[in-house]
User: What shape does this take?
Amino acid sequence: MSDQKDYIVIKAKQDGVNVIGLTRGTDTRFHHSEKLDKNEVMIAQFTEHTSAIKIRGKAVIQTAHGEMHSDE
Ligand code: TRP
Assistant: This one.
């Protein structure tokens, strides 16, 4: 099912990690910002509204492309 792909998992490794959604379309801008505290987990998808996700702070990020640590 197409709406079940492209989940990403973000686990914060410090307080105050920001997960920022950027809009799809000709205009690429922030539309949502979520703050995670240490060990909080967010599971998010790319949607018709969200084409890019920016993560600020130390976190573990899992996607279909693998796992990465934003502080390394
Ligand atoms: N309402 C937004 C959307 O459907 C919510 C969202 C989806 C989001 N993916 C995100 C917000 C990733 C932040 C990061 O597009």
Summary: The first strand starts at residue 7 and ends at 12. The pocket of tryptophan is lined by residues 19, 21, 32, 34, 44-45, 47, 49-50, 53 (CB under 6 Å). The domain at 7-64 is CATH 2.60.40.50 (Immunoglobulin-like).
